[in-house]
Amino acid sequence: MPEIKVTPLGAGQDVGRSCILVSIAGKNVMLDCGMHMGYNDDRRFPDFSYITQNGRLTDFLDCVIISHFHLDHCGALPYFSEMVGYDGPIYMTHPTKAICPILLEDYRKITVDKKGETNFFTSQMIKDCMKKVVAVHLHQTVQVDEELEIKAYYAGHVLGAAMFQIKVGCESVVYTGDYNMTPDRHLGAAWIDKCRPDLLISESTYATTIRDSKRCRERDFLKKVHETVERGGKVLIPVFALGRAQELCILLETFWERMNLKAPIYFSTGLTEKANHYYKLFITWTNQKIRKTFVQRNMFEFKHIKAFDRAFADNPGPMVVFATPGMLHAGQSLQIFRKWAGNEKNMVIMPGYCVQGTVGHKILSGQRKLEMEGRQILEVKMQVEYMSFSAHADAKGIMQLIRQAEPRNVLLVHGEAKKMEFLKQKIEQEFHVSCYMPANGETTTIFTNPSIPVDISLGLLKRETAIGLLPDVKKPKLMHGTLIMKDNSFRLVSPEQALKELGLAEHQLRFTCRVHIQDPRKEHETVLRVYNHLKGILKDYSVQHLPDGSITVESILIQATAHSEDQGTKVLLVSWTYQDEELGSYLTSLLKKGLPQSTS
Amino acid sequence: MAAHLKKRVYEEFTKVVQQQHEDLSAKKLRLTKPSKSAALHVDLCKATSPADALQYLLQFARKPVEVESVEGVVRILLEHYYKENDASVRLKIASLLGLLSKTAGFSPDCIMDDAINTLQNEKSHQVLAQLLDTLLVIGTKLTENPSVRMRLVEVACKHLTDSSHGVRNKCLQLIGCLGPVEKGVAKEVESQAAKDVQKIIGDHFNDQDPRVRTAAIKAMLQLHERGLKLQQAIYSQACKLLADDYEQVRSAAVQLIWVLSQLYPESIVPIPSSNEEIRLVDDAFGKICHMVSDGSWVVRVQAAKLLGSMQQVSSHFLEQTLDKKLMSDLRRKRTAHERAKELYSSGEFSSGRKWGDDAPKEEIDTGAVNLIESGACGAFVHGLEDEMYEVRIAAVEALCMLAQSSPSFAEKCLDFLVDMFNDEIEEVRLQSIHTMRKISNNITLREDQLDTVLAVLEDSSRDIREALHELLCCTNVSTKEGIHLALVELLKNLTKYPTDRESIWKCLKFLGSRHPTLVLPLVPELLSTHPFFDTPEPDMDDPAYIAVLVLIFNAAKSCPTMPALFSDHTFRHYAYLRDSLSHLVPPLRLPGRKLVSSPVSPSITPHEDPSQQFLHQSLERVYNLQHLDPQGIQELLEFTIRDLQRLGELQSELAGMADFTATYLQCQLLLIKALQEKLWNVAAPLYLKQNALASAAAKQILEETYKMEFMYSGVESRQVVIIHHMRLQAKALQLIVTARTTRGVEPLFGMCEKFLQEVDSFQRCFISELPHMQGSFVDKLLDLMPRLVTSKPSEVVKILQTTLRQSTFLHLPLPEQLHRATANIIEPTGESDNPLRFTSGLVVALDVDATLEHVQDPQGTVKVQVLYPDGQAQLIHPKPADFRNPGPGRHRLITQVYLSHTAWTEPCQIEVRLLLAYNSNRSKASAKILKSTWSESLEALPQSENGIEGTIPFSKPVKVYIMPKPARR
C-alpha cells in the first residue's frame, strides 16, 4: 500500500527550528530549515545527520521548501546548504527570498560578532545559499521534476508567508508553515482551496486559544500605550524585526496621527529600513486596504516612527520603543529592558509568544526577580503586559483551515505537546479524520489510497454512457472495455480496438447452463410459463418468445426440452455470451429458484 | 525588401476597402426593398458560405422589424434553418427567433410549434440551448396561456437528460420561469404533465456539473418568486449543497436556505448525530452563520447580508453570533445552557488576553464542546473582521437590521459597532456610524464607548464627522461626565474644523434637549460663573461660546431651575441668539423677563393655522374680483402679492405655496398692465417706449412661468395647465407686440403659424383639463380656431388682442405640498480677502459645497455657473457622484470647479452660482441629460443678462477672489 512518511527533525511537539521531512511516493522533501531560539549549542539546528551519515544531502532530498522568513523557519538554511552540503533546489516566495538574507546576516552578526562564536556560517555562505533559491509566485504550480510539483498559497502571518502543496501523482501533502486566519492591519487572511490533500501538516501554536476579536486587542493595546505615555512612562515593545513589528507600527502610526500625539516612537535596528523597503515593494502581498490606498500614500512610509539610537534610552520623558529581538533573550531589547525595568511607570508589552527559557517567558510567567549574566539580580518593577498579537491561527482558525482544505489526515507540528493533544481530540471528533502529532525524530506513516487515473477513449466513454439509464453522479457504473497496461500507462479501450492493437483474433465465449425444472406439462406450455414468469420480473429488458419455441432475453437464449428419462422434468438450456455475464448469471439463479406455483 | 513590404501593405489595404464597398451596396439595396422578409430571403439565398450567411444575419439583427412582418421573417428564417448545415448559422437563426418574438405587439404562439419542432432533429448542443432560450422568450410572452406553458415545460423536461450542461441549464431555467405554480392547474392537465416541478428541479441539485446545479437552485428560487410554495423537504437537500465545491452553487444555496427559513420558520428539524430538534429558522440561521467564514468572499457577502433579514431567530442564537468563545452545546441541549457557561468560564479555551491562562487543565467534558458545528458562534465577530471590506459592510448592515428588531441584541452589539469606528476603510466606518444612529433608540452609551466614539471626531473626512454629529444628536448618554466629554470633544472639533460650525451647533441643540438633568450640574462650570466674583463677559461672536450656550438653552427648556444659574449677560445673549439663531435656540420662560418670553402658544393645531387661512382668504379675494375697474384690480393684486411675499418670509412651511401663488399673480398683474396701456391702438412707430414695456412684460411672464413649472416640487398637472395657459397668453402678447412693431407682413406669417401650432399642441396635451377652463383665453381661442386658421395675420392679431382682453382670470388650485427648490452655497463663503492665486493658463480647483433642497433629480438638473469679470461665463455639470443624499428632499453637492483664465494685473472677483437646468419638454430633457451626464463638459456660453437659456439661477451668487498670475519665464 502506498504510504506517506513524515518525520519532524524540529518543531515536533515543540516550537522552534521547524524542519520536517516528508517522503511521498518515492520523493523526499524537506519542509523548512529553522533554528531554535532557546539554545546556543548544537541543539539550535536540526540534526541533519538523521538524513544521511555520510554522502551529500543532495542525493537524498529532492527539494527544500521554506515557508517564510522567520529564523525558526529558515535560520539553519546556510548551515544546511553550505556547511552540511546541499545543492538541490530551495523554494520560497519572492518576498521571503528578498528578506531572508537580511535576517540571516543579522543573526550571523549577533552570533559571531557579539558572542564571538566561531565555526558559524559566513556572509559568503549566505550569498551562496541564496543562489540556490528558486522563487515562486502564489498559486503557481512549479514542477520540481517530472512527477513532483509544488504550489504556494497565501498564508498571512508575515509578508511572503506561504502554505505549500506538495503533489506527486494523486498523492498530496499540504504544509501550512505558520499562518493566520484573521486579517490584520497589513496582511490578509490565509486561504486555501478545497484541494483535499492526503495529509495536512498544520502548525498549532495556539491550539487551545480562541482569541477575542482583533479589534478588542488593538483597542487594548492602544489604550495601554496611550495611558503609559500620558503618565510620562516609557513603553518597550520587544518585536522581531519583521512581521508583527510592521503591523504594530501601522497601528501606532495611525493612532498617533489621529490623536495628534507628540511622544516619540523609535524603532531599534538598522535593518528595519531595508526591510521596510521590501514591504513597500511587495504591496500585492498585503491586505486590501494597503493595496487600495498605496497610490495615494504607501502605508509603510511612516511619519512618526524614527530610527533608534542607543543613547535615546536614557532620555527623559515618555517614548515608545520597538526593539529586537522579540523574546527578550538577547540584543537591544534586553539592554533596554534592563535599563527600564526598575521604574514602575514604565511598561513592557509582549506582543507574542515566548519560548521557554527566554527572559520574555520568565517575566510573563510572573517572575519578578531575574538572574542575569554575572550573578546580577534584576528586580522587575515595570508593568508587564501580554497581548497576543502574533499572527498564528487560533483553534478556531485551525479548524476553519481544515474545513476549507478537507484533508484525509491531519498532522500537528509547531506547538506544545499538551495543547496539541487537546486539539487532536477535537479534530478527530469533529472531522472524523485521523490526527497525528509525532515528536522530533519520530516517524509517522500514513497509508494512502490513491486513485489511479486511466485514459479512456472518448468513443468508448460516450457509447457506454449512452447505454442504460441516466448517468447518475457518484454511483459506480459498470462498463465494458479492455484495460491495457503498457509503458507505465493505463488505457481503457473498446475490445475491438484492443484486439486490433494486439493483433489478436476475436474468440466467442459462450456460457451454457442447464436448469432442471419439475413440470409435468408439455414443452411449449413450460416455455410459455417461463416466458410469462420472466416477462413479469424483467420489466426493463426485452423478453421475446420466438416462433421456434425458444425465449430470448436481450441476447440470451433459453430453450426447453423434455428430459430424456423423466418426462416430468424439463431441461432449460440457457446460453449467453461473456459480455452478458451479469444478466446471464442472474437469469440462471432466477430460473434455479423454480417457477411460481400458481400459474395463470 | 522594404518595397516589397510596402506593396503588400497596399495590397491588403485595397482589399479591405473593397469589402467595405460591397457591404455598403448590400445595405442600400435592402433599404429600398419594401418587405423585410423578402430582402432577407434574397440575402440568405445569395449567401454562398456559412460565414456570408452569418454576416447577413448579423446585419439584419441590427435593425428593428415591424410587427406586421415578423411572422413572415420568422417563416423565412425557419426555412433556412432546416436547410442550413452549419451549426453557427443555425445558432444565430435560433437567437434571432428569440429576438423577433420579443417584438412588442407580436404574439408568438403561431411560431411556437415550429420552434418546438426544430428541437426534434437538432444535434448541436449549443443550438439546442439557444432554441430553448428562444422558447423561454416565447413562453414568457405567453404566460397567460397555461397549456402553452405546460407544453414548453414538457419539452424542457424531455431535454433535461441531455449531456451538455448548457442545454440542461436552459431547461431548468425554462422550468423555473414557466413551471406551474398553482396546484389546481397541475391537476387539470393530464397526469403526465402534472409531474411535480419541484421534484424535477430537485433531482438536478446533485447534477455533475456545477453550472447545472446553480441553475437548478436558481430555478427553484424563480419558482418561489413566482409564488409557488416550496416544499420543506428541499431543505435537507439545500443544506448539503452548502458544502459544494463551487462558490456559485454555495452562494445560490445560501439564498435557497434563507427562502425556506422564511417559509417554514417554526417547523422542527432534527440535528444530525443527536436526538435533539430545533426550529428550522434557528437551524438555517446557524448554517448561514457558518457560511460567513466560507472560503469565497462572494459567499461571505451573500451570507452576511441575508443574516440581517432573519428576524424570527431565537434570541440566544442571535447573541451567540457575537461570542466566538461560547463553544456552545447550546445548540444541542438547550437545557444545558448553564452548564455550557460554566464550561467556558472554567477556561477550556483561553481568550489570548492573558499569558498562561491556556495552560491545560483537567478536561470537563470534551464531548460536549463542538468547534465547528456550532456555526452560529461568533459569525459576526468573523464577519466584522473579515479581510474584504465588502463583507464587513454587509455584516454591519445585517447587525443594524437585527439590532433594530431586538433591543437586547442592540445592547450587546454596541461594543462591536463602536470597534468598527476604527476600521481602516472609511466606507465601513461611515456605515457603522449610520448603523449606530439607526439603533440609537435602543441603547445608552457607556463612557468608555462614548470615548471611542468621540475619538472619531478628529477624523479628517467631513462625511464621517457629520455622520457622527448626526449620531450624537440622537444618542443617550448616561452620565454628566459623558456630556462634558462630548462637549469638550465637539469644541475641539470646532477649532480644528471651523466649517463644521452649523452641524456642531445642531448636534449640541439635540444633546441639550435630550439630557437636561445631566447638563444642569455642569452649567456653572460651562458658563464659568463664580459665586463671588464677576467673570468677564465672553465674546458673543465666538462660535465655541455660542455652542455652549446652545447646549445650555436647549437643556433649560425642560429644566426650569436652570435660568437661576445664569448671569446677567447670559440673558442678554439669550435675547440676541433667540433672534439671530432662532432655529437653534428655543423660546424660554425666563423669570422676570416678560419681554423675552414672548408666548408662542403651542395649542394651535396645524389644521386651523391662521396663516394658512390667511393665504386662502387672500386668494379667494383676488379670484372673486372679476369685475372691478382695472385700476382696482391692479392695486389689489399688488397688495396681495406683497402680503404673500411677506407671509412666505414669516412662515417657512408655507413659503413654497406663497411664493408660487405670488409669482402667478405677478404674471397676471404684468399681463393686465401690458394690456391696460391706453396707447395700444395708435400706429406702432410712435410708441416705442410702450412696446418696450409690453414686450418686457411678455418676456418676464415667460420666465416666471418656467420658474413656476420647474422650480417647485409637488406641482401637479392641474397647475401645469394653468402655467402653460399663462405662457400661451404671454406668447400671444409677444405676437401682438411684434405685429405692431414690424412693418411687412412676411415675418408675421411664420409667427402666426407657430402660435397656432402651439395652441394646437396645448389642446392636445391638456384635452382632459379643458372643461375646467370655461371662459378662459384658450377656451375662447379654440372656439375661434376655424376662423383663425383661414384669416390673415393682421386679423389674427386683432382677434388675439380682443380675446386677451376679454378672457377671464383662471383660478390657480393649490396642491397639498409645494416646495420651492433652494440652494445655499456653504463653500466658498465669499468672505475671504486673500485671492486664490494661480498661474494663468493652468487650472485651479475651487471646492464648492452647497446644500440643495427640494430639487428633483439634482444629478440631471443642477449646474454650477462661474462668471468672470470679463463677462465670460462657464457652465459646469457636476458628476453624479458629487451629490449626496443626507435626507428626503435634501441633497448636498460637494464638487470641485476648475477655474482658468489668462493673466490679470490685479485680483478680481468671480461669481459662482448654481443653476437649475430645464427643458420645456420634460421627457425629452431627462433622456438627453441622462446621456450627457457622464461627460463633464465645460461649455463657454455667451452671457445673457438673466442667465442662460433653459436655466434658472436658484442660489445667491458667491464671490470668489482670484488672481491668475502671468507665468514666469
List keywords for this structure.
heterodimer, A: 600 residues, alpha/beta, Rossmann fold, 4 domains, 16 helices, B: alpha+beta, Leucine-rich Repeat Variant, 4-stranded antiparallel beta sheet, 40 helices, globular, protein-macromolecule adaptor activity (chain B), cytoplasm (chain B)
Please write out the topology:
The complex is a heterodimer of chains A (600) and B (969).
Chain A (H helix, E strand, L loop, with lengths): L2 E8 L8 E6 L2 E5 L31 E3 L5 H4 L2 H9 L4 E4 H21 L8 H9 L1 E4 L4 E3 L4 E7 L7 E7 L2 E5 L23 E5 L10 H18 L2 E5 L5 H16 L5 E3 L3 H11 L6 H6 L11 E3 L11 E5 L7 H10 L6 E4 L8 H6 L4 E3 L5 E3 L3 E4 L8 H11 L3 E5 L3 H15 L2 E3 L7 E4 L7 E2 L1 H9 L15 E5 L2 E5 L1 H8 L7 E9 L4 H15 L5 E3 L5 E3 L2 E7 L6 E9 L3 H12 L8
Parallel strand pairs in A: 3-4, 4-5, 5-6, 10-11, 11-20, 12-15, 12-16, 13-14, 13-15, 16-19, 20-21, 23-25
Antiparallel strand pairs in A: 1-2, 1-22, 2-3, 7-8, 8-9, 9-10, 17-18, 24-25, 26-30, 27-28, 28-29, 29-30
Chain B lengths: L1 H31 L3 H11 L3 H12 L5 H17 L3 H15 L7 H13 L3 H17 L4 H14 L5 H14 L4 H6 L8 H7 L6 H16 L8 H8 L5 H17 L4 E3 L6 E3 H12 L5 H11 L7 H6 L16 H9 L33 H6 L4 H17 L1 H14 L5 H13 L8 H9 L6 H12 L6 H17 L4 H14 L1 H4 L3 H5 L15 H15 L10 H13 L29 H15 L5 H21 L4 H22 L11 H23 L1 E2 L3 H25 L4 H20 L11 H14 L2 H14 L12 E2 L1 E6 L8 E4 L4 E10 L4 H4 E6 L5 E4 L6 E5 L2 E10 L8 E10 L4 H11 L5 E4 L9 E3 L4 E8 L4
Parallel strand pairs in B: 6-15
Antiparallel strand pairs in B: 1-2, 3-4, 5-7, 7-11, 8-9, 8-12, 9-13, 10-11, 12-14, 12-15
Subcellular location (chain B): Cytoplasm; Nucleus
Protein name (chain B): Integrator complex subunit 4
GO molecular function, one term (chain B): protein-macromolecule adaptor activity
